[in-house]
Structures
1.
Amino acid sequence: MMNINQINGSCCAECGSEEGGGVVSLKTCKSCMLVKYCNAFCQKNHWAKHKKECKLRAAELRDMALFKEDPPAKEDCPICFLPMPVKLISCISLPPATRSTVPIYDYAIANEVFATVDTEAYYSCCGKTICRGCIHSCRTSGNIDKCPFCNSDGASKTHEEMVEDLTKRVTVNDPASICLLANSYHHGINGLQQDRTKATELYAKAADLGYNKAHNNLGGNYYEGGDLKKAKFHYEAAAMAGHEVARYNLGSLECSFGNMERAVKHWKIAASAGEYDAMYKMTVVFEKGYVSQESMDSTLTAYNNSCAEVRSKARDAYIRGIFWE
């Protein structure tokens, strides 16, 4: 049985050596943060006694991080400084969602391009990700082939030159460039031969640099390959870093496992951030009795507020341009 010093972490949990005097330097168990050890030997010897407690506490800590009330803020467009929309459909000025129906979801079904078209574009010339509203404004002002941020000319660049620009930024560990190069290999586009293995390696490199989009893409790859454990790990990493679509995917994955309480938690967080698929799921589970009236009302309020935050005249103009084209 551990003594009080071992419990409060002032001495080694295995041998009881106390820290102090520059003789013993204790290291905290990185998984549970509950106990300390004077060396790897003591940690290894103590594992059989500590394993169960460690795994339980580690799971608790991960859930605390996974379901925390205030997820990371959305990335801002470097030109208009508005948060990037989760999906393009979140930008258009529509009636607010109600408990009985979600107009934005219904509208997206009828106009799939609004739900699937990219809301942003990455420019390898300056390494900036720009919202489609600002890109639209730049083009309508006459700068059709210019970068909206640095004004460089990309009109005459070939696929090879574009890949070369990306590769240059990859060499300096720019995660967005690494992820985009991975996309090119994954889909066999931009003049590159399809290479899923190479794509996965690049996605993993970008994920190691903390890029949540790479984690989400890895989650999707592993899900398609049937490795649900790895899919869940990467979806969780992306969700904790603020990726709302990954959060929605994670909720769907938990639902498929039969973990409805966890699924609803994920959908609530994603919907509150403006993810319309998650908002639709919330209406479904509300009707089935998994969500209280109070929780539904607060989620709808947060959803409407998140959508309002990403709307602008420029983004509405871009959407109208797509519609009329």
2.
Amino acid sequence: MARVSRKAIDDVRETTAEVLGFGPHDIIFTSGGTEADNLAVAGTVGEGIAVCGATEHHAVLNSVEYVGGRFVRVDRRGLLDLDHLTDVLDESVTVVSVMLVNNESGVVNDLEAIASVVRHHAPAACLHTDAVQALTWLDVAEAAQWVDALSLSGHKFGAPKGVGLLAVRPSVGLSPTLLGGGQEADRRSGTHNTPGIVAMGEALSCAVGERGDLGPRLRLLRDRLADGIAVAGGVHETTSREDRTAGMLQVVVDGVASEALLVLLEQGGVMASAAASCASGALDPSHVLAAMGFDRVAAAGSLRLSLGWCTTADEIDLAIEVIPPAIAQLREQPRSAGS
């Protein structure tokens, strides 16, 4: 029984490695993207300095903050500021983490350009990318050729929640953060989640196989959605459509509070979030928008709409039907209250 389980895990290790452009022994299975990001930072920083972009997922952002690291600005589009990256790098930096695709805005960073800066100014640093949002949309192996480590979370491409991975090049010295049974070549202890790992392998194969058709189809739906809700007026996309993946639409809505808007949308059958989906219910404005230069008032009106493989044209029609009237209703409330 144990051999059957081990073979199933190793089969996924091989197929995953091929898709990501790593070797089979480079794959470390984790409980998800958060653990993978934490391990990437804490496992490589050592006695040095950690660096990350200001718009990173909190799994990276908080890890870098915890070890007293440095943060890099982004421009108005949400892309990493390479000049500022140059300024914060030196030979004391041991790990640099930059998202491939931002989880709120959907903007895609140029890892080749970032790697060039890191190799020149911090040659000993491990370059890590949080690619959790990328697999459905991009050829991750092509992007990952420039990095030393990469994180994925299975539920972002159809696997159950609670399984993910960190891919690490053999040249990277990685210290474990979980100790115990010595699984994953002593890099991540804990009994393997065999069903989750196998499911992640199947989901990954499906996602890669469907990627060529999915992106163009959803890009059309996303743009129709953006145009449809823009009729409300005062609705601003936070990044250009060319800079981001097909499954993301983030806007800021003038004169509307996100929390109130989300309640009305849910009543109308539209599920959305104000910032990161894993932070649903949070009242603080998006740190991503703040880093991009949006003030607190504008960021308080953020709305994030996600599309996936199961999104249909009828669902887009419903969102276009529900969102503009909801915005109008909230804008009318202060006048009604004062009348």
